[in-house]
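[09:14] KT: can someone run the structure on this one? pasting the chain below
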Amino acid sequence: MVIDAELAWEKLVRRDADAELFYAVITTGVFCRVGCASRRPKRENVRFFGTAMEARGAGFRPCNRCKPDIARGSVLDKIRAHIEANLDRAVPLAELALVAKLSPFTVQRLFKREAGVSPLQYQRALRTNRLRASLKQGDSVTDAIYNAGFGSSSRAYEAAPLGMTPARFATGGKGERIGYASAPTPFGWMVVGATERGLCWLALSATKPEAEETLRDEFPKAELRRDASLAKLIDAALASVREGSDLRESRLSATAFDLRGTVFQLRVWNALRRIPRGQTRTYSQLAREMGEPNATRAVARACAMNRVAVLVPCHRVVGVSGSLTGYRWGVERKKKLLVAEQAR
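[09:31] RB: done, structure tokens below
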């Protein structure tokens, strides 16, 4: 494997957790993944390798922090399988650590880095999918809650995994309260909607009535109320285009997202948020970065289902030829967003 040393160094500097590269430090005799959180070495002391075996063959020993000689896929598969087999009870990190033969801290960090969510969030999302399916099939709320693996109805309501209570979900969201605000932007009229849990909708349209109608179409049975304070979310979206910031990095870091989807969709939407401003990915590249090289079409479908424009930047995903392909809020707006992000 031929490695571009300069490109590899760039990945090390930004701690690219998705890069399948390893580096060794001559002065310590240790090798790590380029995404390891250990102290950055001096450039002249670094050697790069394509596999952990090559690094070991060169006489370097594995880092105790990132454990580069442990195959990611097999470990993650074990953790996922154990969680999926025990949806009816809490699975503590200590238990997953025994399954993976890693420390609880490493399990948490590795799983979140690779899957985009913590083990607990993953389990909750799986339960949510099962609960959603049961309710749609017409099961009673009580039966659906227990069949989904929640120990009690109070646990299900406290977790609010559907972005609303199970009873409200069963009736199409009737009774859910969503605040909203709209404003003109360089990319058209923008409307945002938020539940008590966080931002659930951000759309772009040609006019204010059209923008607000998208919210009514998406949540037809919810109670909508105008909330001027939510204009700060519009400001955050524009800042993400101008400066590359988002809700995790800005002064609005306490504001949450209320993204409702399958486990896979949530992983895709989290992966979209990791694409740096000014850069793009193809659907196949995004699938590979997620560790799902055969899921290109599923990634494209998840992008199409994204309910939060700009802040979950599906506009940064393009066709394999660089073409803009489809965009839920219009290809011309996608072009304007990319031009604005790449201009600075």
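[09:33] KT: thanks! DSSP finds 15 helices and ten strands in the chain.
[09:34] RB: yep, looked fine to me
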